Structures are given as structure tokens and as C-alpha cells.
UniProtKB/TrEMBL annotation:
Its EC number is 3.4.21.-. Residues 118-256 form the Peptidase S54 rhomboid domain. This is Rhomboid family intramembrane serine protease. PANTHER family: PRESENILIN-ASSOCIATED RHOMBOID-LIKE PROTEIN, MITOCHONDRIAL, RHOMBOID PROTEASE. It is found in: Membrane. GO terms for molecular function: peptidase activity. It comes from Saxibacter everestensis.
């Protein structure tokens, strides 16, 4: 068969075969179901019916409404990254507490007398735990995992992280607010642990459940049991539990009951107000401390 305007089977050869717009060197007879342009295998994306090109998929994603939870968080799949990160950091610090010469416990613990001179301890106290009672860190991290895997997806990563941090600070403020500056065993008493932050998650869970219309009896029982333990078992800073519980509930109320319109701005302003309340509590308490009172804790 002689060569000419026919293929090997005698059919007319295409003068301009369809090519992929993104890869013009590739012939493709498969077309996008949306724009009907030729699409090579590399640019094909499976759709509900047929194939879409990458350009149409990107355009649809840009115009589609992002799925959000009722609290304004992006709907995510997979593990609670923030929760796992906090647990990993806390356990790493706990291991460092056993290394002699570092004195990381003394560097991160909190005492009311240190509030003004080293205010970061209001937060860092949540990273250190009792080395003589391993269940201290174990139970706190279990509580974080238990509530974190529910609250983090519901609130979103950043909202959950802020909730945890403000609850931790609220726990320390609770210790300071209920301490007596005139009693050394109260004002200079060091405390350690993430219990304030965990109780903040307890309070947040209660608020979130109420907001969603879910059952709250179990969380109330859990709060009550842990509250009783805090008063009965010696050496437990129940003041941190109370401060964290109240702070977490307040922060969660701001996040959960923010109006849909301007929700993010309302949530940011509300959380800022919670921080201001904590700052006001610190200012009010420290104003009562005599200027001549020593503010260095002997460790």
C-alpha cells in the first residue's frame, strides 16, 4: 500500500490530532467532561461521571464552599495533630526531668511569688510533672487524648490550641488567686502539672455538649469525681483545677456561642477578653502583696 493521505488501514490520517493543552506533545482522545478539552493521562482526574482535567478541578475547588464545623473550623480528616504534639512535647519534657544537672523542673514550675518576676511560668508549669508519681503525667496525658480527639476536630486546630493554653494559664491564676501572700507555705509553694489545662478541657467539653444539645451528665460526674479527689488526696493543687475549669468554660463559651456573622472576629475578641480577665486577676492579687515582700523562690 502506497503512502498518502491514508493510514496503514486505508483510513484518512488526522491532520491535527487533539493534544493536551498542558502537554502539547501528547495526543489525547479523552476529553474533560466539563470543558471538553483533550486531557492526557497525567492531567486526568476521576469525577463522579467521567474525567475532569486538572484545570477544571482547581477551578471547582476555588469556587466551592469549604466545609466547616458549627464552630467555624475547617473539617479535617485524620489524627488530632495539636493534641498529639502537646502530648509528645510534655512527655519529652518529663523525660528531661530525670536528667541530672538540667534542673528543668525548677526552671518551668510555678509558684505565686514568681508571677511578676517570671510570668512565663504561668504556662510552662503545664509541661512539668511529679517525677515521683508517674500516674500524674500519665493521667493528664490520657485526659488530653480523651478530650482532644473530640474537641480539636470540632473547634479546629488553632482554636483548640488557644483553649488549652488559656486553660493552663487560668489554672496557674487560680493557684495565685487563692494563695495567701502572708503565708510562706502558700505564696511560695511550687506546683507542677497540666491539671489546670485538662480541667479547662473538662469545662470546654461541658459547654460544647450543651451547645450541641448532647448529654452532659457523664462530664458532670467526671468533673465531680476529680474535684473530690483534689480535696481528699493531699498534695493536689485543687486551686489549679478550679481556675482551669472556669477559664476553659469561659473560653469555650466564646468559641461555641459566637454569632455566625463575623464569627472569627467575635471569637478573637472574646478570647482576648478572657486573657484580659486573667491579667486583671493577677493585677488585683499582686496589688495586695507588700512591696517589701521577697519575690524570689528559694529552690
Amino acid at each position: 500500500m502506497t503512502s498518502g493521505p491514508y493510514g496503514s488501514q486505508g483510513t484518512p490520517a488526522e491532520a491535527n490530532p487533539p493534544v493536551c493543552p498542558r502537554h502539547t506533545d501528547r495526543i489525547s482522545y479523552v476529553r474533560c467532561q466539563r470543558c471538553e478539552r483533550p486531557t492526557c493521562p497525567e492531567c486526568q482526574r476521576p469525577a463522579a461521571v467521567g474525567i475532569l482535567c486538572v484545570s477544571c478541578v482547581a477551578e471547582q475547588a476555588a469556587h466551592s464552599r469549604e466545609a466547616k464545623t458549627v464552630f467555624g473550623a475547617q473539617v479535617r480528616q485524620g489524627r488530632p495533630i495539636v493534641t498529639l504534639s502537646i502530648i509528645a512535647i510534655t512527655l519529652a519534657v518529663f523525660l528531661l526531668q530525670f536528667i541530672p544537672g538540667i534542673d528543668i523542673t525548677d526552671r518551668l514550675l510555678y509558684a505565686p511569688a514568681l508571677t511578676l518576676v517570671e510570668p512565663w511560668r504561668l504556662l510552662t508549669v503545664s509541661l512539668v510533672h511529679s517525677t515521683g508519681f508517674i500516674l500524674h503525667v500519665g493521667l493528664n496525658m490520657y485526659g488530653l487524648w480523651l478530650f482532644g480527639q473530640y474537641l480539636e476536630p470540632a473547634l479546629g486546630r488553632w482554636r483548640f490550641l488557644i483553649l488549652y493554653l488559656v486553660s493552663a494559664i487560668g489554672g496557674s491564676v487560680g493557684v495565685m488567686a487563692l494563695a495567701d501572700p502572708n503565708v510562706a507555705g502558700s505564696w511560695y509553694q511550687p506546683v507542677v502539672g497540666a491539671s489546670g489545662a485538662i480541667f479547662g478541657l473538662f469545662g470546654a467539653m461541658f459547654v460544647i455538649q450543651r451547645r450541641l444539645g448532647g448529654p452532659v451528665r457523664q462530664i458532670l460526674v467526671l468533673i465531680a469525681i476529680n474535684a473530690v479527689i483534689g480535696f481528699v488526696v493531699p498534695g493536689i493543687a485543687w486551686q489549679a483545677h478550679l481556675g482551669g475549669l472556669i477559664t476553659g468554660a469561659l473560653a469555650a463559651a466564646v468559641l461555641a456561642y459566637a454569632p455566625r456573622k463575623n464569627r472569627t472576629a467575635f471569637q478573637i475578641g472574646g478570647i482576648a477578653a478572657v486573657f484580659l480577665l486573667l491579667g486583671a486577676a493577677i493585677a488585683a492579687k499582686t496589688a495586695l502583696v507588700p512591696v517589701t515582700a521577697p519575690l524570689i523562690l528559694g529552690l
